[in-house]
Amino acid sequence: MNKVKVAFVCVHNSCRSQMAEALGKKFASNVFESYSAGTETKPAIDKDAVRIVKQLYDIDMEKTQVSKLIQAIPQPDIVITMGCNVNCPYVPCKYREDWGLEDPTGKSDDEFIRAARIIEDKVLKLKERIMSGEISA
């Protein structure tokens, strides 16, 4: 059976969605494939996000991830939007939800750590909901 494909989507694909992709791969790769993408890209992943994820989880996002457009990822079964505070990108899928996360870009390390911990918790809950059949994709 193919694993469910989960796309973490945000406008710029440079911070929260990248963190979610990295944590999805770390904590839920046995249940779903994690991708991130946006309607626009940035030249690099947010340096603070890279540093905090490396510090907290020993994941170097710059080695395995780049900012990419929605068209560059496989068709997802599940789309998770990060809380864009603008028009979140539309991506066809079987299930969609918005995590409503504040963007920590340009803020303190504490805000990045808080965002990372919230994403970790939400990724683990998403994994449980998929495993239990609460979310079918």
From TrEMBL:
InterPro entries: Ptyr_pPase, Ptyr_pPase_sf
Phosphotyrosine protein phosphatase I domain segment(s): 4-129
Top-rank lineage group of the source organism: Bacteria
UniProt entry tagged with the keyword Secreted: no
Pfam family, one: LMWPc
GO biological process: response to arsenic-containing substance
Keyword list, A-Z: Arsenical resistance
Presence of the UniProt keyword GTP-binding in the record: no
Entry-linked PANTHER family: ARSENATE REDUCTASE
Name by which UniProt lists this protein: Phosphotyrosine protein phosphatase I domain-containing protein
The organism of origin for this protein: Desulfitobacterium hafniense (strain Y51)
Upper lineage: Bacteria, Bacillati, Bacillota, Clostridia, Eubacteriales
